Amino acid sequence: MRERVFGIETEYAVIYHPARGELGWPTNLELYALFEAQLRPRVASLPRAASLLRSKRGCFLENGGSFHYEATPHHFEHGLLELASPECRDPFALLACERAKDELVEELAHGVTAELARRGWGGRVRIGKNNVDSQGHTFGSHESYWVEDRLSPAERLRLAPLWAALWLATLPALAWLVAAALLAALAAVAAFLLPLVAFAPWALAALLSRRAETAAAALRRAADALASAPSRLFRFVSEHPGEVARRLAWLE
To answer: What is the reported pTM?
Structure first.
């Protein structure tokens, strides 16, 4: 066991306790944004790699661990806070990292509660670390161990046809994922280029304004709709992140 690499990924429940008489509360997705804002001045980090089909937010920490938001597309607004340890060479280093994760999320929770108070919320944020919540959702920790099992050249040669067959079988799924990602990217780019397209109907409406006022008015409305497309798309993504995640998950 000494020649191993160890790791633990821990899921923490984010719990908001509203104040007496408080009718609403922020979603876990909104709380996660506050957690990440509290994290940045405390721990150096880098953002996760972008993914067109998965809107999984998070960052990598300076010690090699990760800090991210974990949620299913169907319940995207009500996810968990997940922290992964760096790769550790012995159980004692892993235990130290696990305890450090617990202390970090508790410290961040206090900062988030203070930030919510500045924004007019009266409740407080707590962190849960158990396996099943009151609704039956399961979460906890995932352990990982690096184990090397070397194959002899003869064994590799015997398995080569199976590997090749499995690789070929995945090509249709890979092609669909690449095509879906490209289509999503092109759709986003096209939406932001629509204001350029709006100049044509605006110019045509100006030419027709004296001779065909009704047609000119229709062209102006179409041009205004094209010009406002990026802002409407940005507003939809900002106001409905869960819906965006569900649509991307359907493609995937």
So the answer is: 0.71
